[in-house]
Amino acid sequence: DKLPGIVYGGNLPATPIELEHNPIFYALRKEKFHASILTMELDGKEELVVLRAFQMHPYKPQVMHIDFQRIAADEKVTMRVPLHF
């Protein structure tokens, strides 16, 4: 199954994407996925992105949509990071 999404930010137009559902579904179960800088290939170029939002089906174990934000290595990024003691 395919998962629709979007990549936005970085002074570039928003880019609709389509990902394989299951790898994203299982990655979302891991805390580090929510706070990691990811490398994504878009139009033949690698871009740095972070997860910004996702929507789950109300009763099925299914991701409905996912949003990523582009980031630049020289820009500040504010995000929540889980801490465990």
In words, what does this structure look like?
Keywords: Ribonucleoprotein, Ribosomal protein, RNA-binding, rRNA-binding. This is Ribosomal 5S rRNA E-loop binding protein Ctc/L25/TL5. One of its GO terms (molecular function) is 5S rRNA binding. Residues 2-68 form the Large ribosomal subunit protein bL25 L25 domain. 13% of the residues lie in helices and 51% in strands. It is mostly beta strands and 85 residues long. It has a five-stranded mixed β-sheet. Strand 4 and strand 5 form a beta hairpin. The model has no long low-confidence stretch (mean pLDDT 92).
| Termini separation | 38 Å
Number of helices in the DSSP assignment: 2
Instruction: Determine and state the CATH class.
Output: Mainly Beta
| N-to-C series of helices and strands | EEHHEEE
Strand content: over 45%
Backbone structural class: mainly beta
Strand order of the largest sheet: 2-1-5-4-3
Mean pLDDT: 92
> What count of domains describes the coordinates?
1
Largest sheet descriptor: 5 strands, mixed
CATH topology: Ribosomal Protein L25, Chain P
Report the helical percentage.
10-25%
The 3D shape can be described as globular
CATH homologous superfamily grouping? Ribosomal Protein L25, Chain P
The tally of beta strands, per DSSP, is 5
Q: pLDDT below 50 for ≥5 consecutive residues: which ranges?
A: none
Specify the CATH architecture.
Answer: Beta Barrel
Nearest-angstrom radius of gyration? 13 Å
GO biological process, one term: translation
Keywords: Ribonucleoprotein, Ribosomal protein, RNA-binding, rRNA-binding
GO molecular function: 5S rRNA binding; structural constituent of ribosome
InterPro entries: Rbsml_bL25/Gln-tRNA_synth_N, Ribosomal_bL25/Gln-tRNA_synth, Ribosomal_L25_dom, Ribosomal_uL5_bac-type
